[in-house]
Backbone:
C-alpha cells in the first residue's frame, strides 16, 4: 500500500520550511552594533618568591636587578647557590631581570643560572653564558 502523494508532499514541504526558518536567520542576520572592547587592567599583586642564582665559577661582582630595584648586589658573592626570598609583583605579562657579573680575566666562559619560584606558580629557570670576563643579560620570565 502506498501513501497519498499530495499529503506526503505537504509533510516534506513542512519539514523543509521548519529547517529554513533558523537557517535563514543565521544566514541573513545583520550584525548587531560592535561590542565595545573592554580594556582590562592587568591584575598583579605581591607574591612570596624564592630567587636562586647558581654559577659555575665565583664572580668578582654580581648584580641582579628588577627594574630600578636592586635584588642582589655583591662585590664578593657567597658560594653558589645564592638564595633570596622576597615579595615580588608579578604581572601576567611577566618580569624581566637584569643580570650583570664580572669574573677574573683568566676565567673561561661560564654559566649563570637564575631560578625563580613564586608561591603557587611553576618554577622557571634560565641559564646564560658569559662572554669573556663579563656578562650583561636581560632574563625574562612569564607564566600563562
Residues:
Amino acid at each position: 500500500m502506498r501513501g497519498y502523494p499530495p499529503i506526503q508532499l505537504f509533510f516534506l514541504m513542512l519539514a523543509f520550511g521548519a529547517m529554513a526558518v533558523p537557517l535563514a536567520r543565521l544566514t541573513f542576520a545583520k550584525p548587531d552594533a560592535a561590542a565595545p572592547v573592554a580594556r582590562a587592567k592587568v591584575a598583579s599583586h605581591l607574591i612570596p618568591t624564592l630567587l636562586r642564582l647558581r654559577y659555575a665559577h665565583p664572580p668578582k661582582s654580581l648584580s641582579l636587578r628588577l627594574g630600578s630595584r636592586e635584588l642582589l648586589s655583591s662585590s664578593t658573592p657567597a658560594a653558589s647557590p645564592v638564595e633570596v626570598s622576597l615579595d615580588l609583583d608579578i604581572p601576567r605579562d611577566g618580569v624581566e631581570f637584569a643580570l650583570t657579573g664580572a669574573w677574573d680575566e683568566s676565567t673561561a666562559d661560564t654559566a649563570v643560572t637564575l631560578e625563580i619560584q613564586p608561591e603557587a606558580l611553576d618554577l622557571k629557570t634560565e641559564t646564560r653564558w658569559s662572554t669573556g670576563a663579563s656578562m650583561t643579560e636581560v632574563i625574562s620570565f612569564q607564566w600563562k
Remarks:
- The chain has one helix and eight strands.
